[in-house]
Amino acid sequence: MHTVDIFDTTLRDGQQGKGISFTVEDRVKIAKLLDQFGVKFIEGGWPGASPKVDDFFAQMRDVKLKNAKMVAFGSTRRASNSAEDDIFLNKIVESGVPTACIFGKTWDLHVHEALKISLEENLDIIETSVAFLRRSGLQVFFDAEHFFDGYKRNPEYALNCLLAAERGGAEVLVLCDTNGGTMPHEIGDIIDTIKPQLKTELGIHAHNDCELAVANSLIAVRHGASHVQGTVNGYGERCGNANLISIIPSLKLKFGIDCHIEDAQLARLSKLSHHVAEIANMTHNANQAYVGQNAFAHKGGVHVSAIMKNPETYEHIRPEQVGNKQEVTVSDQSGMSNLLYKAEKFGITVDAKDVRLKDLVQRTKELDKLGFTFEEAEASFELLMRRKLELFDRSFQLEGFRVIDEKRGHDEEVIVEATVKVSVEDNIYHTAAEGEGPIDALNNALRKVLDRHYPEVSSIILTDYKVRVLNSEKGTSSMVRVLIESSDGKKSWGTVGVSPNLIEATWKALIDSIEYKLLKG
Ligand SMILES: CC(=O)SCCNC(=O)CCNC(=O)[C@H](O)C(C)(C)COP(=O)(O)OP(=O)(O)OC[C@H]1O[C@@H](n2cnc3c(N)ncnc32)[C@H](O)[C@@H]1OP(=O)(O)O
Ligand SMILES: CC(=O)C(=O)O
């Protein structure tokens, strides 16, 4: 099959997504990441539309790109002036990029209603705008805005718009499903009809309003499009743009089209996706195809049993091909296979026929019913398994704790004090400490003892603390689940505690966190 150029518009159409606002520094970082990854074109924004975009293009003049070409975006000229006098077309030329991508109207409704000019005048606007940019020495792509909607209402006119851009010298005619309402079969049928009437390469720019932007982009390629526009993680206006993070591996691994991206570059796909999400300050979608944390996570015992024999049974590709990894979780959906998988991961040698493992499967299901989830608390599960297999002894034993909260007036602060009694190596310690809250006070009192025996405990910091009320209909006597994420600066781990008492649930998760650190050294 033909080759495909990847055109990224995260910095332009992606930035049109609600909740996304890149600084100039963010833009430069993303442009560098995209270039390293290997996309062919990076659309940086609309020169003249915002000072941030102008600063970005100015800064990018000093950045040497390895793989990509910078593209400036804009519209066809205003009806009230010539292309030579159009402020925004001139801004594109002044931005210093080698490539321009301008959008023009191809739906007669828009010509009548939005531009309020004649159909003929719009054709002239398209041709003269493209021709001006070409005369100015730029490579020009023409984004045929609303092409599919326009074609369905007035096919002759929509095609004439493409022909006007072709006469002007456009190098790619990009068919836009601007409102994202077109179905895949319509994309294929329309491309098949128009392609023989054009000399110019076709591209696709799809929006995701029907959750079809990726499918529509792929079907366009099947029908001859050689240029695909989209954004990282599908960011973009309304429901977003076509997600390049799904399109690129589908083109490479399913269609066999390399899109100028080598296998080694594809293996950095997950990193790219996560890194851009971080810069955009968006939570990464765990269920995102190919690169999400759950994309290769297996929960059901039947699945785990099969992937341990051959991963192909429940994985459509090897996760490493896109820089992701296989994961197995433990829950009430688990069988022996989940536990054997985890044992191997924890470095525990255990016979598959060991009856204690069968008991542990049952125990895990009972704990799940009580509210324990181990998906985000693998450290707690490792301790549970080691305890069951008699591979682990507690480093310290709780003899008792007491927490006192005291408030002596409406406007007075609460004073919190905890006392803890623990035995360590045949010594019994009784300590007290204050804290910001009951958990902090307990932690402080416990650390007073543990720091003496286990200095490594001082490196533990709590990086996340989540509380979930499990059966809220019981009001204040509901069970609560506490999930703690801890880190020692090098590694992080998750633990869980469940109890009707929030302090006790937290204590359990906290103790597991400390025991896990002591186990791992
Ligand atoms: C499908 C897409 O995603 S297209 C890209 C959309 N992105 C953006 O709009 C983000 C950046 N835009 C902006 O910052 C501003 O809209 C600007 C600076 C470009 C223009 O601002 P203003 O001059 O104040 O115009 P405003 O935004 O109100 O309206 C857009 C104008 O462009 C005209 N226009 C729209 N599309 C085109 C086109 N393809 N060719 C020529 N003119 C066009 C409209 O008719 C309207 O003109 P009017 O004011 O004479 O009615
Ligand atoms: C040009 C563009 O962004 C669109 O038609 O969606």
Automatic annotation (TrEMBL):
Catalysis performed (reactions): pyruvate + acetyl-CoA + H2O = (3R)-citramalate + CoA + H(+)
InterPro entries in UniProt: 2-isopropylmalate_synth_dimer, Aldolase_TIM, Citramal_synthase, LeuA/HCS_post-cat, LeuA_allosteric_dom_sf, PYR_CT
Keywords: Amino-acid biosynthesis, Branched-chain amino acid biosynthesis, Isoleucine biosynthesis, Transferase
EC number(s) from the headed UniProt entry: 2.3.3.21
Segments forming domain Pyruvate carboxyltransferase: 4-267
Pathway in which the depicted protein is active: Amino-acid biosynthesis
Entry's Gene Ontology molecular function annotations: (R)-citramalate synthase activity; 2-isopropylmalate synthase activity
Tree of life domain: Bacteria
GO BP of this protein: isoleucine biosynthetic process; L-leucine biosynthetic process
PANTHER family in the cross-refs: (R)-CITRAMALATE SYNTHASE, ALPHA-IPM SYNTHASE/HOMOCITRATE SYNTHASE
Protein family per UniProt: Belongs to the alpha-IPM synthase/homocitrate synthase family.
Name of the protein in question: Citramalate synthase
Species for this entry: Persicirhabdus sediminis
